[in-house]
Amino acid sequence: MNNQLYGNLIFELSRPGRCGYSLPKNKFGHHEVPAEMRRKADAELPECDELTVVRHYTNLSNNNFGVNNGFYPLGSCTMKYNPIINEEIAAMPQFAAIHPLQPEDTCQGALQVYYDMQKALAAITGLEEFTLNPFAGAHGELTGLMIIRAYHQSRGDMKRTKVIVPDSAHGTNPASAAVCGLEIIEVKSTAEGVVDVNDLRGLLDDTVAAMMMTNPNTLGLFEPEIPEIQRLVHECGGLMYYDGANLNPMLGVCRPGDMGFDVMHINLHKTFSTPHGGGGPGSGPVGVRKGLEKFLPVPKVEKIGDTYHIVTNGEGNIHVGEFFGNFGVMLKAYTYILTLGNEHIKLVGPLATLNANYIKESLKDCYELPIGSVCKHEFVFNGLKYKSTGVTTMDVAKRLLDYGYHAPTIYFPLLFHEAMMIEPTENESKETIDSFIGTLRKIAEEAASNPDVVKTAPHNTPTGRVDDVLAAKQPILTWKQMKSI
What is residue 59's three-state secondary structure? Predict the structure, then answer.
């Protein structure tokens, strides 16, 4: 590759008068653009031949990193392999070309997928019924909290306005509660990284609407006190909300409904393989226990006899979208579930847990492990074990890029100053994991013998170490800005 040519911005490849393609003459007639809508000067666009443009963007695409071309140990967000069959099914014209307003009798297949997906998620989670309407995990959280609030209000219990959230929770938990008009109460964690039940007891009263929990939690630890926690919350009249962001290691092991949770959301774009890199698309179905079904949002799909019907009225009066969410994402997740089947979906959780614990135990001699107990699908190091080198978690993450690995989540959760969260998922082979372990060990050795090479990384990427603070405060967003520097 000619880095001189293809590492540049497209504007730098521009030459006056050069073009690649001219649109054919409009065969439908000539229409003048009104004078008030016309530009006073030509748009400042790059002028390039077609081949230069194609090569430029093709080479840029080669700089993208994804699960398909490398190991992606991104903790807190399960960047799981998305099998190609998922894409093939979602792209079938029988699904891709339908319209949400066409008559029911012309889209019975799509409605059946929606209905069967609801039932599959209910079986997997131990809950009674699901809605697939929410468009993302945070949207699902908001929907779940709206359901909880509607439940309390339906009983005339208007003073329940508080939501208890662990200090280790994902940031979306308190954000969703605030958007729903609820007050956030934080419950502390123990030294072992799980909810402090004694602290919780002092927070419970008749103003508590719900408690939100992620299990396993953000440290990758299973919450052992859930039976006691759900008993205490239910006794004070509150409901239990399950954040399904970390549901992956629970598949085939246990179900939130069986633990005593009343409402939950699932990230289809995490647990069930559909891709969500680059900010979307997502899907955050919400499930409820028996007795809360009437509060689920509409529209929804019901089966009467052998026919599927769209129901647009419900008692809950909760609306989170006019249609049925991201149907293409549901198709991919549905395909994933059917491909694995009941037998093999039970292997997902145990394999993800095995891989995470293998990495943790293999590296704890050179990376600080603040909590040494058995983890689930992810775990957290607190940077290098020996801090005297001055090499930070940020430095380690940047150096990983030089070796062809995507960096894990860093500086989250906030419980540890140099947090580095690693999540391998169940898909990775032992050879891949061993290679990753070897690379992290090598970086630890470099930090001790030649710390500057780690502190100045990355060295092999198209862009070197950037000034994150400057980029956030003074971003260069246009070609004109760049020319003026």
Answer: helix
Last residue of a domain, one of 311, 343, 375: 343
CA distance linking residue 230 with residue 240, whole number of Å: 7
Q: Are 7 and 462 in contact (CB under 8 A)?
A: yes
Contacts of 418 by beta carbon, 8 Å cutoff, 6+ apart: 368, 381, 382, 383, 384, 392, 393, 411
Name beta bridge partners: 130.
Answer: 287
- H or E, element range at 119: helix 108-125
Q: In the numeric block, which tokens belong to residue 385?
A: 């074990």
Residue bearing tokens 């994402």: 329
Radius of gyration of the chain (CA): 26
398 in a structural domain: yes
Residues 354 and 323 in one domain: no
- The dihedrals phi and psi of 452, each to the nearest 5 degrees, come to -65, -35
Distances from the Cα of 475 to the Cαs of 115, 153, 188, in angstroms?
Answer: 46, 46, 37
Report which residue type is found at 264: M
pLDDT band per the 50, 70, 90 thresholds, residue 5? very low
Quick check: 296 and 131 in contact, CB under 8 A? yes
Q: What are phi and psi of 56, to 5 degrees?
A: -60, -50
Residue 175, by phi and psi: left (phi above 0), alpha (psi -120 to 50) or beta?
alpha
Can you tell me whether residue 307 is helix, strand or coil?
Answer: strand
The domain boundary, picked from 343, 359, 393, lies at 343
The dihedral region occupied by 239, where left means phi > 0, alpha psi between -120 and 50, and beta the remainder, is beta
pLDDT mean over 394-422: 94
Q: What is the CATH number of the domain that holds 257?
A: 3.40.640.10
Name the burial class of residue 160, with classes exposed (0-12), middle (13-18) and buried (19+) by CB atoms within 10 angstroms of its CB: buried
Note whether 86 and 283 are within 8 A (CB): no
Can you say how many angstroms the Cα of residue 166 is from the centroid of all Cα atoms in its chain?
Answer: 19
Structural domain includes residue 185: yes
Packing angle between helix 137-154 and helix 172-179, nearest 10 degrees?
A: 50
Judge if the upstream peptide bond of residue 299 is cis by omega within 30 degrees of 0: yes
pLDDT value of residue 4: 45
- Shared domain check, 235 and 113: yes
- Give the predicted TM-score (pTM) of the model: 0.89
Same domain, 379 and 440: yes
Query: Quick one: 179 and 112 in the same domain?
Result: yes
Q: How many folded domains does the chain comprise?
A: 3
pLDDT in tens, 217-244: 989 999 999 999 999 999 999 999 999 9
Does residue 308 share a domain with residue 389?
no
Domain membership of residue 275 as a residue range = 84-343
